[in-house]
Specification:
The protein is α+β, with helices and mostly antiparallel strands and 312 residues long. The chain folds into three domains: 2-152, 2-Layer Sandwich (Chloramphenicol Acetyltransferase); 178-212; 216-312, no CATH class. It has eight helices and nine strands. The chain starts with a strand and ends in a 30-residue tail after the last helix.
């Protein structure tokens, strides 16, 4: 089954070129659990009416000289929707899904076709009756845009023809600000600007000093040379969205902040456990926290600074 599309080429954005660099070749992998078995034909028909109307999902990379452009092409869904033959009575289905996703790290996507795949696994796991796995090159979009596209491809259960309702972000109440005098507002603006300049200078200096003089501490998280070529395994934990929203409301922060805090806490517990085992094997005295002091860890976090009302 094919969906045709026509159109001229479009140059890659700076971010898309970055995601295609050899040292930064990134993919987005989304795992979707379903309550029923998946009908591949229904998925094919639905994609043609929704996601495939977006030009990025019907465009391939064409290199002309030094420049690479997105060029729309006729797409064959059989090359993008993969339905493997799986024994429904397989032992350890959760482990099978983990191994299946881990194999993605061994092979890149074929750049001669649009850079996405959808794998449909009709296998019952501990959390779902069937599994859908999206594999999308990060140059097609960031997390916010891909989630927006996925939401736009769904419909309400109460009205199959209606788009889902996305909540809008509440605007901050600035009534108290307008009540301040002009002089107070002026001095507050000056102080805010000075603080911004000072924080920027400090952050830049710390970044330069870290790059030049400070190296990451050797920890169980730090891989050896060539670790990027090894097969990766995606280990995940199911977390209730209601619990995340509760923490978000109590802390007056965003869902992204809560998830980042969960990740940091998980890494801290992992290091504490690994160093605790090492200390026990070495006969060292166990402390309340097994993590060494003055440990240095660097991480790259991509932050979307564009306004995205309703999707946080």
């Amino acid at each position: 089954m094919a969906c045709s599309s026509e159109g001229g080429g479009e140059p890659l954005s700076p971010a898309a070129r970055l995601f295609h660099s050899p040292s930064f070749n990134c993919y987005v992998i989304a795992i979707i659990g379903c309550k029923t078995s998946i009908n591949p034909q229904v998925i094919r028909d639905g994609l043609c009416q929704t996601i495939l109307k977006h030009p990025r999902f019907t465009s391939k990379l064409v290199k002309k000289g030094r420049k690479t452009r997105w060029t729309e092409t006729t797409i064959d869904l059989d090359n993008h929707i993969i339905v493997p033959q799986i024994d429904s009575k397989i032992d350890f289905p959760d482990r099978f899904v983990e191994d299946y996703i881990s194999n993605f790290t061994k092979t890149p996507l074929d750049i001669s076709k649009p850079l996405w795949e959808l794998h449909l696994l009709n296998i019952k796991t501990s959390n779902a009756e069937s599994i859908g796995i999206f594999r999308i090159h990060h140059s097609l979009g960031d997390g916010t845009s891909l989630i927006s596209l996925l939401i736009a491809a769904t419909r309400k259960t109460s009205d199959p023809n209606a788009l889902p309702t996305v909540p809008t972000t509440r605007k901050r109440d600035d009534s108290n600000v307008h009540n301040c005098s002009i002089i107070v507002s002026f001095w507050l603006s000056i102080l805010w600007g000075l603080r911004l300049i000072w924080n920027t200078i400090v952050d830049v200096l710390l970044l330069v000093l870290t790059i030049l003089f400070f190296k990451d501490t050797h920890t169980p998280l730090k891989g050896a040379h060539g670790v990027e070529l090894n097969t990766k395994r995606f280990v995940y934990l199911m977390v209730s969205m209601d619990d995340i929203k509760l923490v978000k409301a109590e802390m007056k922060t965003t869902i992204n902040d809560v998830l980042l805090g969960l990740t940091q806490a998980g890494l801290a517990r992992y290091l504490n456990r690994e160093y605790g085992v090492k200390n026990a094997n070495d006969g060292a005295a166990m402390s309340k926290s097994g993590i060494p002091k003055n440990i240095r860890l660097r991480a790259s976090i991509l932050v979307n600074i564009r306004a995205s009302p309703g999707i946080q």
